[in-house]
């Protein structure tokens, strides 16, 4: 039994054949079973192993096995294994021998037994013949212990059955024969055993040598390795400490053995990565620690490939590094994939970032839109009640208030107006921005607009500034456009200019520019607006595509008349009757504080002012210019600015206007007619290009117009000034050329001398009186500026009752007359002395001197030509000096009888007869009515 | 205030005027005055009437002062004042005041002091009545204007020249 146990063990040991694997192989590697060589031989035989890629420097291998620890160890393991196997075989043989010798003993014993039996039988031949079976039994025990394996061989002691009678001759014979047979068998067995032994010895002799065994094992391992590595993209190699290849395994070799063995990487390859790998290996060699690295090769030999390289140092027994083992795996695809992945991931990240950014922007935009909408809505909501407040305040201002209340109201009004204006601005802006703003097209006269804007500005001017306007002659009398918006722009720019100008002048220059694109080019530093470039484009198309698009562009009110002669002609021939487009440039210039360079960019932005200082000092919201710009752009023009700090700014906007040619020519004809006819001045503003509003100081309000201010401000002088400001801006030049320019200048000069128009109605009576004292001649000119000749009639009202004065004045005004008022007869006499009247309305009952007496005195003067009567009556007459100067006038007036109409209250004392008796021509009964007054005036003022 | 429509206020005004005409307090001259009121002088009537009241009050004060002085009642001066008052009253169409003035003047010309005093009292009464009624009238008118202004703010804004 013990033998059997022993014989099992070698089998177990055989299973573990770890020594074939690298020492540092992981546990997973160990799990691979390597079976007994005999069993797998067949399997491996089926595999054809390509041995070629295996290139070995055998000498080196021997050296390695001899010198390196690893090789030594591997060899030892192999030897140990072989020894173990041998011992196992020896044990088996010994066991066999033991068995055989046992069997032999048995046989011997049997033999003895048999012999003894026979002897016993002899002895007991006559005596007791009973066999003793004790031994037999014992033997049987022994036999049973024999190894079962050999049972077939072991012959059991058989009891031969003998039929013959005991102790007979036959019996003995038979018995002998039987024994003989047994012996024979025994001998035979012995023979077999001997043969077997012989065989065993022979087989023992035939057993292989350890070297053979070892090489077999190695070969097997080699085969396995080949099998495994057959298609793997790996390169395995060993290099000595000079980095020369001693061994290389490469499944896809491109170089022969002789090209590699004994050479270094650098010697074999050229290209990127070779040096790096060499350095890496050297580093590993020096540091003595295994390492991994990914290296990308770019060589002529195998192109661009990435290898993951594992390098481990190989130590000698003495612990010195004698070389490196190196294993490379191609991971080009993986690297590529990895890089792709990284790129993708990056792109995704970028995309995501963009998306969030976009979302943010969208969100902000939405918010802004909502805020704007809100602002607009709120502004609108605020405007309605606010305008209520402002109008109420205005009404309140007309009621009877004391001084303080009036002051407070004034503040209220101005603040209210300011807020209202601001809200209107905001609404305008949001309108323009949202594209809701509709432009109207209506005929208007640019000169009137300029005049009116300047007039308005002058009226509310609180500084000593000269306001001037110059409209070139070639600007059409009437153009079509949105006059309200244009006026808004002008007013805005002018008030802006006034706000930032402390001395000097503010003015408007209006002239036709022939070509928008030209102006754009030369013109100020601003980016070209959308509109002009757009129109230029359509023009280009028009050339190519011929008429249809050209028509379109005309319809679109873009300027197409400048580009190309052919088109010009084309257009002229076709559209003579239609309106043409004229581009008018408007400069609003001032001599104010100017705009610093850095503020130019933000100038037109909403709520932006030049600086925080400006806002504090000058107020305002910074909306004005933004609105102007948007409006101008909405109308298809552009707004630019140029400025010199401390010298002034010039805002320029160029707008296209339609001109209806038919009405234009009519108008000019008419106007030129009237122009020829007279200098009477009331039609003056229509074609006069120059408006001048000199600084207004108290008292010189009117007289200053006539003095020598105007020559100083001729168009030329400020034209030069203006040019200094806008360096690049061209001179106002019309399409007609130099001649017309000169013409316009001269005409401008001529017109400048004509008295400018400034009629402030409520000031007129005072003015008249003032002028009456100053010079009679001018006063006659001044009286009736506005209407017909009837206005030139002078009426004197003599009345002491304030109420009656008010009523009468209001009535005459409504009838179209202006009147002078004096409050008693004496004053009436003085007034008549000063000036001649066409009609006198005389109250009868008055203090100081009644109407009757006054009439008498006036009549006596008319008859005698002297005021002696009056002087006698106690009227303090003025110095008679004027009599000399106006003798001719006296002569003239003396002939005339001034109609004097009495106003009677129909009382007892004021009888009609008395009136007539005192020289009155007629009477109207009090209270006077509009009807009676009208009749009276019509009767006496023809 | 905004609840009252312009039309209603106008109707109120017309009703009040009708009453005054019916009572003879006012006459057609007041309508003349109203005709003179136009855009150029939107508050003409009230302006005139305000001045009228101002002047009249002065005159009434003077008249009373003249009458109070028992010994030296200056009837001539009184006549001038009354003339003034009568003239302006007729100018604005205050018919009843004018009539009372005429009576007053007649009494003053007769140096009838008790008559004058009676006439003065009547004059003052009439004056107060007229003043109250016209005050009411102008108040309604003002309300009407406000209502109209609130309804149609556009012309108001246009008149305010932008300064920005």
TrEMBL record, chain A:
The reaction(s) this protein catalyses: ATP + protein L-histidine = ADP + protein N-phospho-L-histidine
Claim: Heme is one of the keywords in the record: no
CDD domains in the record: HATPase_EvgS-ArcB-TorS-like (cd16922), HisKA (cd00082), REC_hyHK_CKI1_RcsC-like (cd17546)
Keyword Phosphoprotein on entry: yes
Residue stretches making up the Response regulatory domain: 794-941
UniProt biased composition (Basic and acidic residues): 519-530
Coiled-coil region(s): 90-117
Gene3D superfamilies given in the database record: 1.10.287.130, 3.40.50.2300, Histidine kinase-like ATPase, C-terminal domain, PAS domain
UniProt xrefs under PROSITE patterns: HIS_KIN, RESPONSE_REGULATORY
Protein name as it appears in the record: histidine kinase
Subcellular location: Cytoplasm
Residues found modified as 4-aspartylphosphate: 843
GO CC, one annotated term: cytoplasm
Stretches assigned to the Histidine kinase domain: 377-659
Organism listed in the record: Salvia divinorum (Maria pastora)
MF annotations from Gene Ontology: protein histidine kinase activity
Biased composition (Polar residues): 531-566, 768-783
Primary location group: cytoplasm
EC main group: transferase
TrEMBL record, chain B:
Predominant location category: cytoplasm
Name of this chain's protein: Histidine-containing phosphotransfer protein
Matches recorded under Gene3D superfamilies: HPT domain
GO molecular function terms listed in the Swiss-Prot or TrEMBL record: histidine phosphotransfer kinase activity; protein histidine kinase binding
Localisation: Cytoplasm, Cytosol; Nucleus
GO biological process, one term: phosphorelay signal transduction system
InterPro entries from the UniProt entry: AHP1-5/YPD1 (IPR045871), HPT_dom_sf (IPR036641), Sig_transdc_His_kin_Hpt_dom (IPR008207)
Domain HPt: 41-137
Domain notes: Histidine-containing phosphotransfer domain (HPt) contains an active histidine that mediates the phosphotransfer.
Matching PANTHER family: PHOSPHORELAY INTERMEDIATE PROTEIN YPD1, PSEUDO HISTIDINE-CONTAINING PHOSPHOTRANSFER PROTEIN 6
GO CC field: cytosol; nucleus
Protein's job: Functions as a two-component phosphorelay mediators between cytokinin sensor histidine kinases and response regulators (B-type ARRs). Plays an important role in propagating cytokinin signal transduction.
UniProt keyword terms in alphabetical order: Cytokinin signaling pathway, Cytoplasm, Nucleus, Two-component regulatory system
């Amino acid at each position: 039994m013990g033998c059997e146990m022993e014989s099992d063990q070698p089998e177990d040991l055989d299973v573990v054949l770890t020594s074939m694997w690298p020492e540092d192989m992981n546990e997973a590697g160990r799990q691979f079973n390597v079976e007994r060589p005999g069993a797998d031989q067949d399997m491996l035989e089926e595999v054809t192993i390509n041995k070629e890629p295996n290139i070995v420097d055998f000498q080196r291998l021997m050296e390695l096995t001899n010198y390196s620890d690893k090789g030594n160890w591997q060899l030892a393991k192999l030897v140990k294994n072989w020894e173990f196997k041998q011992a196992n075989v020896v044990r088996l043989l010994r066991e066999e021998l033991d068995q055989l010798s046992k069997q032999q003993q048995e046989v011997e014993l049997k033999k003895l037994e048999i012999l003894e039996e026979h002897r016993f039988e002899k002895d007991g031949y006559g005596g007791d013949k009973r066999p003793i079976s004790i031994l037999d039994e014992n033997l049987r025990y022994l036999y049973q212990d024999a190894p079962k394996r050999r049972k077939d061989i072991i012959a059991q002691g058989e009891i031969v059955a003998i039929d013959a009678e005991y102790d007979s001759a036959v019996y003995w014979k038979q018995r002998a024969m039987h024994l003989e047979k047994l012996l024979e068998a025994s001998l035979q067995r012995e023979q077999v055993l001997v043969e077997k032994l012989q065989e065993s010895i022979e087989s023992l002799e035939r057993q292989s040598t350890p070297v053979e065994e070892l090489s077999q094992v190695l070969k097997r391992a080699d085969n396995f390795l080949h099998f495994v590595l057959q298609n793997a993209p790996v390169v395995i190699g060993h290099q000595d400490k000079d980095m020369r290849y001693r061994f290389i395994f490469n499944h896809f070799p491109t170089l022969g053995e002789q090209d590699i063995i004994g050479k270094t990487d650098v010697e074999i390859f050229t290209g990127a990565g070779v040096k790096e790998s060499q350095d890496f290996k050297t580093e590993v060699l020096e540091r003595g620690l295994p390492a991994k690295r990914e290296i990308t090769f770019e060589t002529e030999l195998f192109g661009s490939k990435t290898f993951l390289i594992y390098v481990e140092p190989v130590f000698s027994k003495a612990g010195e590094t004698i070389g490196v083992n190196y294993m490379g795996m191609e991971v080009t695809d993986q690297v590529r994939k990895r890089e792709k992945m990284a790129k993708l991931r990056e792109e995704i990240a970028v995309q995501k970032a963009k998306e969030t950014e976009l979302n943010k922007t969208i969100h902000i935009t939405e918010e802004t839109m909502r805020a704007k909408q809100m602002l607009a809505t709120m502004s609108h909501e605020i405007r309605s009640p606010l305008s209520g407040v402002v109008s109420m305040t205005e009404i309140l201002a007309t009621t009877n208030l004391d001084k303080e209340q009036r002051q407070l109201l004034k503040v209220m009004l101005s603040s209210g107006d300011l807020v209202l204006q601001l809200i209107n601005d905001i609404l305008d802006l949001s309108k323009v921005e949202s594209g809701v703003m509709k432009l109207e097209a209506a005929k208007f006269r640019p000169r009137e607009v300029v005049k009116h804007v300047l007039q308005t500005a002058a009226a509310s001017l609180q500084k000593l500034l000269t306001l001037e306007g110059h409209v070139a002659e070639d600007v059409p009398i009437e153009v079509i456009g949105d006059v309200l918006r244009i006026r808004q722009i002008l007013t805005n720019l002018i008030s802006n200019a006034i706000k930032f100008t402390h001395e000097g002048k503010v003015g408007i220059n209006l002239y036709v520019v022939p070509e928008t694109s030209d102006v754009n080019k030369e013109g100020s530093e601003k980016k070209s607006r959308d509109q002009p470039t757009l129109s230029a484009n359509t023009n280009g198309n028009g050339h190519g595509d011929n008429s249809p698009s050209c028509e379109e562009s005309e319809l679109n009110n873009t300027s197409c008349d400048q580009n190309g002669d052919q088109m010009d002609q084309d257009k002229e021939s076709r559209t003579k009757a239609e309106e043409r487009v004229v581009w008018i440039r408007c400069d609003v210039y001032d001599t104010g504080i100017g705009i610093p360079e850095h503020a130019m960019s933000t100038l037109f932005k909403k709520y932006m002012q030049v600086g925080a200082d400006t806002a504090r000092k000058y107020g305002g919201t910074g909306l004005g210019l933004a609105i102007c710009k948007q409006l101008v752009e909405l109308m298809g023009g552009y707004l630019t600015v140029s400025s010199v700090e401390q010298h002034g700014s010039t805002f320029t906007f160029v707008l296209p206007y339609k001109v209806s040619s038919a009405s234009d020519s009519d108008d000019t004809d008419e106007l030129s007619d009237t122009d020829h006819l007279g200098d009477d001045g009331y039609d003056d503003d229509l074609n006069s290009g120059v408006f001048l509003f000199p600084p207004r100081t108290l008292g010189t309000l009117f007289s200053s117009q006539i003095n020598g201010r105007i020559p100083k401000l001729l168009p030329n002088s400020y034209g030069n000034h203006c040019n200094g400001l806008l360096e690049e801006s061209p001179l106002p030049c019309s399409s007609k050329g130099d001649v017309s320019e000169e013409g316009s200048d001269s005409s401008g000069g001529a017109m400048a001398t004509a008295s400018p128009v400034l009629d402030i109605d409520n000031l007129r009576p005072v003015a008249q009186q003032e002028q009456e004292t100053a010079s009679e001649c001018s006063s006659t000119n001044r009286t009736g500026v506005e209407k017909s000749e009837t206005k030139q009639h002078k009426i004197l009202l003599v009345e002491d009752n304030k109420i009656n004065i008010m009523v009468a004045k209001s009535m005459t005004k409504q009838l179209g007359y202006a009147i002078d008022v004096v409050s008693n007869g004496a004053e009436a006499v003085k007034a008549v002395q000063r000036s001649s009247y066409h009609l006198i309305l005389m109250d009868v009952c008055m203090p100081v001197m009644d109407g009757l007496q006054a009439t008498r005195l006036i009549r006596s003067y008319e008859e005698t030509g002297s005021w002696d009567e009056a002087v006698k009556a106690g009227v303090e007459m003025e110095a008679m000096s004027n009599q000399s100067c106006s003798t001719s006038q006296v002569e003239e007036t003396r002939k005339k009888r001034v109609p004097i109409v009495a106003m009677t209250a129909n009382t007892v004392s004021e009888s009609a007869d008395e009136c007539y008796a005192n020289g009155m021509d007629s009477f109207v009964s009090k209270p006077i009515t509009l009807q009676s007054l009208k009749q009276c005036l019509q009767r006496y003022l023809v | 205030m905004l609840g009252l429509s312009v039309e209603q206020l106008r109707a109120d005004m017309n009703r009040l005027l009708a009453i005054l005409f019916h009572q003879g307090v006012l006459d057609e001259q007041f309508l003349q005055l109203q005709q003179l009121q136009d855009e150029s002088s939107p508050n003409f009537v009230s302006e005139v009437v305000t001045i009228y009241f101002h002047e009249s009050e002065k005159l009434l004060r003077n008249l009373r002062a003249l009458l109070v002085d028992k010994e030296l009642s200056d009837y001539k001066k009184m006549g001038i004042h009354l003339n003034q008052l009568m003239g302006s009253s007729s100018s604005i169409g205050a018919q009843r005041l004018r009539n009372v003035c005429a009576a007053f003047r007649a009494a003053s010309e007769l140096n009838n002091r008790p008559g004058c005093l009676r006439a003065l009292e009547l004059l003052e009464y009439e004056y107060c009545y007229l003043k109250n009624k016209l005050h009411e009238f102008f108040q309604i008118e003002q309300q009407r204007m406000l209502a109209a202004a609130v309804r149609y703010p556009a012309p108001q804004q246009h008149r305010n020249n932008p300064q920005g």
